[in-house]
Q: What sequence folds into this?
């Protein structure tokens, strides 16, 4: 294996790990903020690092269209381009293209699609996806797959999964092993335990540095997602990092960690920061709500982020009402900070074998919501 | 006088000064970034301070409408509200209301106007303007005046100026003297030397801590503005700070400093930062231009700001093309940084009695523009 992954503690199925990559170490369970277009929206990379984030996600689909993977390579790679010297995971582009309903055409070799920016035609294959991720300089490269639509019949899910497994083999063949650089395979199989097992077996056969769980968080709901995770995580190699793609809400992260997942990414904290939604220790809070207008308290008294240490809820509310960019900057920063604090809390709880108690407190305080009196 | 102002060096008419205010010292000549709605748009206040800015401008008009001056006072004043512990100058609201063509009605006592936000009716008088600026906690309060439209006949300009002088007296009477807190009068008189002299005489008679030059940068052009400044600055007390309101481009600042002006404010660096326009040592640069797309050089190699030290022109161009908030953040930060560097350069040149040479180099390099080869 070309990257290190050491598990130092476990609590139930939850694991406390440490992944060693070309650009640094990632403590797991880890949440990766999303830097779609070579920027974590509304944040300077120094501010992202201050939250405790040790790894970002970059999107192959967006970067291949603008400014182009070859362009980024000429400029020294994605790390240098976006001024982030810690690890980066790039997705394969598969999921983003899957989201282009009506503007993509799948064949056995790959997928042809139209750019959402200018309608131009492009093509992704396993080989081209891996090439792009090389050009970007990813620490972790993802295999190119098809995200199985939800819901799917057993037949549909099997066909889609087996296509992804063939593409996983081609991704592996196209990937150039280098120290500190990882290739992750992606398990598919929708909500069918036998297909998930078949997919895991196929991926093990090919051999990857880490294993992602794909095809979830696509509308099936938390209960069904946890139902799949109850077996899916166990099907993947115990000594390698497990990554649940595109997840999720704070309670999703906690539930998935308790089922053996080590890594996550999601646009929720950053996107919510641009729509006045704040994640806090008392649950989600809509900062556009007039109730905050005269409130001199910090957004979250237990948070050390710039938004919570420098400003009142009244000020954050004012920024949002005034459509000020600083509102998006501060709330995004807070949300990413909160997510990193949540992951750090889980890591400490696993080390202390106290994750059940941590979860109980989490669910109790999250239910407080936005309604405590002034 | 309730604030200190010491001039330590002069070079021609230019002055190197130091103003002592309740929240700190301001080295002059000084440029004040504009924080209209209690935020310098797209910048955290820590970042504003890092540029070298020692004082901000806040807008009475915007803040009285949203979130309201009494609200800000309840929350501890504007400094605390926006997390800026250095000096703040507030304008009187007069100019902003003047800009509300068709939605304001002037009478001898004040002005009634409709909010641009919700159409609600409001009123400003000298007494209410001063009260609002007290509530905000300004270090420097501006007298309430009418900005004389341009062009104006001698009669129109005289009538408008004399109204402003009556209001200046009422502003003075309404202002509560406190150590470190200043009240500035505003000279009017359009482009008429005799009226500028009459206005200056009226203001001197009332007595202020500093003197602003109003009614310029309203469409008269740089040549005519400099023509007025040739005499207007001299008409104001030599031992008190002189503030040219709403100015301007880098060459405006330099020309005005050479005519004896000490303070400036303008939205240009911040607004331009949101429209891809960068101010540099080689002139203004449009970062949206495709020529920057593959350019690995920094925006301005002699600039120490985060945008210039951390990123390529290609990256900044990419952010702008992608409508990323970080583009506005980095370019705004750069522009404010450049303006502060320019003022620091002028201050050093005055101390060294080298402002003429500084100006010659400035004009030479500004003409380079955006066209130097890769």
A:
């Amino acid at each position: 294996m070309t990257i290190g992954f050491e598990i130092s503690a476990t609590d139930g199925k939850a694991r406390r790990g440490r992944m060693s990559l070309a650009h640094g170490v990632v403590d797991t369970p880890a949440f990766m903020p999303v830097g779609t277009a070579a920027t974590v929206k509304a944040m300077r990379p120094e501010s992202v690092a201050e939250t405790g984030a040790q790894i970002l996600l970059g999107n192959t689909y967006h970067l291949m269209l603008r400014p182009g993977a070859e362009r980024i390579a000429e400029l020294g790679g994605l790390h240098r381009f976006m001024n982030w010297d810690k690890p980066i995971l790039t997705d394969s582009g598969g999921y983003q293209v899957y989201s282009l309903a009506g503007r993509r055409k799948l064949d056995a070799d790959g997928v042809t699609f139209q750019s959402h920016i200018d309608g131009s035609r492009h093509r992704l294959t396993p080989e081209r996806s891996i090439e792009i991720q090389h050009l970007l300089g990813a620490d972790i490269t993802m295999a190119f797959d098809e995200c199985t639509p939800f819901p799917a019949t057993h037949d549909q899910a099997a066909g889609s999964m087996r296509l992804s497994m063939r593409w996983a083999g081609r991704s592996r063949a196209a990937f150039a092993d280098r120290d500190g650089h990882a290739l992750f395979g992606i398990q598919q199989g929708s909500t069918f335990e036998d297909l998930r097992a078949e997919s895991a077996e196929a991926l093990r056969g090919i051999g990857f540095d880490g294993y992602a769980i794909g095809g979830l968080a696509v509308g099936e709901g938390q209960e069904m997602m946890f139902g799949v995770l109850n077996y899916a995580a166990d099907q993947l190699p115990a000594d390698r990092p497990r990554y649940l793609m595109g997840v999720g809400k704070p309670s999703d992260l906690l539930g998935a960690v308790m089922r053996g997942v080590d890594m996550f990414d999601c646009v929720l904290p950053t996107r919510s920061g641009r729509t006045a939604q704040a994640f806090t220790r008392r649950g989600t809070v809509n900062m556009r709500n007039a109730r905050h207008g005269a409130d001199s308290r910090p957004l979250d008294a237990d948070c050390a982020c710039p938004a919570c240490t420098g400003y009142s809820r009244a000020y954050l509310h004012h920024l949002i009402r005034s459509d000020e960019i600083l509102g998006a900057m501060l709330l995004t920063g807070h949300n990413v900070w909160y997510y990193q604090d949540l992951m750090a809390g889980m890591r400490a709880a696993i080390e202390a074998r106290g994750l059940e108690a941590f979860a109980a407190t989490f669910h109790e305080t999250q239910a407080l919501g936005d309604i405590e009196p002034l």
